[in-house]
Design goal:
Layout (H helix, E strand, L loop, with lengths): L2 H12 L4 H49 L10 E5 L7 E4 L4 E5 L9 H10 L5 H14 L8 H17 L6 H4 L2 H4 L4 H13 L5 H12 L2
Parallel strand pairs: 1-3
Antiparallel strand pairs: 2-3
Helix pairs in contact: 2-3, 2-5, 3-5, 4-9, 5-8, 8-9
Length: about 220
């Protein structure tokens, strides 16, 4: 064996660790050191959220279905718990609806548990409203002030409806400055044009048309 071969042979016994070995080490560390705590937090979150949802869902489901003019899903909505959720407290995939929630985020505790679960569920309900907004902007040959204007509408609608059941809730968008930083022009329009519809006045399409009329560039 040459000198260079001996160096290579020695180095492979110490580093670099083969990819399969590295994956095994990471998995072992997760299972041994992190997973028990993560699993405990996930289960604690579920235990705290379940009775809150059970208490309020009979009111919240039909209220949100009416607000978005879309029936609530007949099959149960699946929710996955994760200790970490990258760049968010929760996110949702639709068709079918699958919600993922962080159990470690300080933004999803107490009354906010209900807000986040019904907000994420409403991603499956907002489609019709989003399409109506797009249709009206095309008819008017104009644009809304924000590409994700529909998401602002979802935040507003969900928080207004949930807060009626949980007055102690500080809505997510209010608490974390989203009306000031993300959609500064949206809140006054929603208060004027959408809130009356939420309390039973007017109809779905006319309210959305008025929102576009008052928001379009």
């Amino acid at each position: 064996m040459t000198s260079s071969n001996r160096i290579w042979a020695a180095s492979t016994q110490r580093w670099p660790v083969p990819a399969k070995r590295r994956r095994w080490v990471r998995r072992t560390r997760l299972q041994t050191h992190w997973w028990p705590d993560h699993d405990r937090k996930n289960r604690e979150w579920i235990a705290a959220a379940t009775p809150l949802v059970a208490k309020h869902e009979a009111v919240l489901k039909p209220a949100l279905a009416r607000a978005f003019d879309t029936p609530w899903e007949k099959r149960p909505i699946h929710v996955e718990m994760r200790y970490y959720v990258t760049n968010a407290s929760a996110y949702t995939a639709i068709f079918p609806t699958l919600i993922t929630v962080s159990s470690s985020s300080p933004r999803t505790v107490g009354p906010a548990m209900v807000e986040v679960l019904f907000h994420e569920s409403s991603h499956a309900l907002i489609v019709k409203a989003r399409d109506e907004l797009s249709k009206e902007t095309r008819n008017r040959k104009t644009e809304l002030p924000y590409p994700d204007f529909w998401h602002a509408l979802l935040f507003y609608t969900n928080s207004e409806i949930v807060k009626k059941q949980l007055p102690e809730l500080e809505p997510y968008a209010n608490k974390y400055g989203m009306w000031q930083n993300n959609w500064p022009l949206a809140l006054p329009v929603f208060e004027k044009d959408w809130r009356p519809f939420l309390v039973g006045k007017g109809n779905f399409r006319e309210a959305l048309k008025q929102i576009v009329a008052d928001s379009a560039k």
